[in-house]
Amino acid sequence: MPTKYHFISGLPRSGSTLLTAILRQNPRFSVALASPVVSLIEAIQPYTSGGEYSLFFDDATRADMFQGLFDSFYKQTVAKMPENPVIFDSNRMWTGFIPLIAHLHPDARIICCVRDIGWILDSFERLLAKNPLQMTRIFGAGPRNSILARAENLMNPEYGLVGLPYYKLSEAWFGEQAKRLIVVPYNSLVKDPKRVLGRIYQELGETPFDHDFQNVEFDDVSEYDAYVGLPGLHTVRKKIEHIERAPILPPDIFFKYATAQFWDKPELNPRRVTIL
Description:
By secondary structure, the chain is an alpha/beta fold. The chain has helices spanning 16-23, 37-48, 59-79, 98-104, 117-130, 147-154, 163-174, 186-191, 193-204, 222-227, 251-254, and strands at residues 4-10, 29-31, 86-90, 110-114, 181-185, 274-275.
């Protein structure tokens, strides 16, 4: 049976690392923290259309090349997996490529982890406060000298670590392929992981699996977190639980994006996107 592909996307600091750690408990699933496949496709596309070599390609050839990236990248992984493997390719940019996903993998779904924007920005500020000796790379060359500048940098729609995937997600949400999305709110995942995972399996048409939510483990990625200057960025607690806390963002910044959560508004869900 051919390898199944699904995708994980959505917003940062919204539970995607936790979801990855949970799904990895199933030996039939391969879930990486992040994948370069979408970046490889972006790099190849200019050579296959709109450039001097585009005459050598038709749509069938392009599709074969893009599918070949998936097959080549995951070949060794699939060889080590049991029968009927399922690959979850993770990248926040996939929500901007849903028509391509639909063409290459007609049965694929895209799991999108989401969270209130104010809490996402607050989470980044907490990480910065925990690492006062570090100079993080997440802001690039953009402004970072005040809490407002950092929030606006993160929310920039062109390059922001939050803003860019947010607008990619909105593009997918309101697009014609929106029914492929499975939206997982952060609070739902940490408050009732058993129900959320059960629904994910149901949506994917997979056989249920008995996950251990009291003993979640994740690979040591401290080297990567240190590289970006944010130790603890991908830390996952062993026991899944919801922890109440007060925000450290000033109220004017925290509530600035209070209306940005379109997934919370039924009137903004005309395509009936699945929300868990």
